[in-house]
Amino acid sequence: MIHEIYPKKYDPTYINRKAGDDDHLLCYEKDGILIKYENDSYSLPKCRDYQEICDAEYEDIKNSAYYLFEISGEYYYVIDLPEWLKENIPYYRKTEDIVDKAGKAWFFLRIHSFRELDPVVMVFAGATGYHLRNWKNVSKYCGCCGSNTKPSTKERAFVCTNCGHEIYPQISPAVIVAITNGDSILLVRNLRRPKNVRLELVSGYVEIGESFEHAVHREVLEEVGLRVKNVRMYKDQPWGISGAHMIGFVAEVDGDDTIVRQEDEISEAKWYKREEVPEYRNRLSVGSEMILRFKEGKL
Ligand SMILES: [Zn+2]
């Protein structure tokens, strides 16, 4: 999964530290992440790399970097580049679209394509930085009084310069459920997904006031009209690309196994025998891992 980066170690502890030349400076533009391409490989740029594209702005950019996290002695920050500079950097939706791969290249790559790259530790850093950058972007003004905020020097938070309201990073918990029925598993196609082609598990956000287990029962009943029993937690996994945190569960169908689809959300829902379950190449999500383990008879 995306956060399984052993032997590397993630440390989200906030420290008040200035960026140095060897630290990673992540940069995003809308849903794109800035990539440096060199010698046939992709990397997240380090601070000193920006000297190639920034000239006189280099020191300003370095000083404006906002601290994010550490991964095994490597420090990560997020920055914003001046508009004129961003306009000169190409944006690609897919890696197949990248032209001019000769020598060095800088470009923004759509985060959903970036997640297909290797190594996983790079994808984890980029996706986690994306989550924090999105939170930073919506924390510029106070939600209570509308005044400007400024970063806290003590913790990962923004503080209102007028009323002192503190804004902390936000994570949206969501449950994802492998519903089994003897030798079959329930797979669905979700209308909200692009192209609506991927088979996946039933999932949904946890509502305020309910437990994760309650959310499992509610979402399963809403989306496919089933009741479940023997609900047990499998594993959980951060998903910075959508600001979510996925909590994986396994459950058995309880009683009638007739599926009643929530038509405005689910376009298809069907029981699949182990041997009918398609191969999954997604190595990042708890949902894919549960589907694969079921296929292999290990769930
Ligand atoms: Zn305020």
Task: Walk me through the structure.
It is a single chain. By secondary structure, the chain is an alpha+beta fold. The protein folds into three domains: 10-137, Nucleoside Triphosphate Pyrophosphohydrolase; 138-169; 172-295, Nucleoside Triphosphate Pyrophosphohydrolase, CATH 3.90.79. The chain is 20% helix and 33% strand. The protein has helices at residues 51-54, 58-63, 83-87, 111-114, 120-137, 212-224, 286-295, and strands at 10-11, 24-29, 32-38, 41-43, 66-71, 74-79, 91-92, 105-110, 149-151, 158-160, 166-167, 172-181, 184-190, 199-200, 202-205, 228-239, 244-253, 266-273. Strands 1, 2, 3, 4, 5, 6, 7 and 8 form an eight-stranded mixed sheet that branches. Strands 12, 13, 14, 15, 16, 17 and 18 form a seven-stranded mixed sheet that branches. Strands 9-10-11 form a three-stranded antiparallel sheet, with no helix packed on it. A hairpin with a 2-residue loop joins strand 5 (66-71) and strand 6. The radius of gyration is 22 Å and the shape is globular. The two termini are 16 Å apart. The model has no long low-confidence stretch (mean pLDDT 93). Residues 142, 144-145, 147, 160, 162-163, 165 line the site of zinc ion.
Task: Lay out the secondary structure.
Blueprint: E1 10-11, E2 24-29, E3 32-38, E4 41-43, H1 51-54, H2 58-63, E5 66-71, E6 74-79, H3 83-87, E7 91-92, E8 105-110, H4 111-114, H5 120-137, E9 149-151, E10 158-160, E11 166-167, E12 172-181, E13 184-190, E14 199-200, E15 202-205, H6 212-224, E16 228-239, E17 244-253, E18 266-273, H7 286-295
Parallel strand pairs: 2-6, 7-8, 12-17
Antiparallel strand pairs: 1-5, 2-3, 3-4, 3-8, 5-6, 9-10, 10-11, 12-13, 12-15, 13-14, 13-18, 16-17
This protein binds zinc ion.
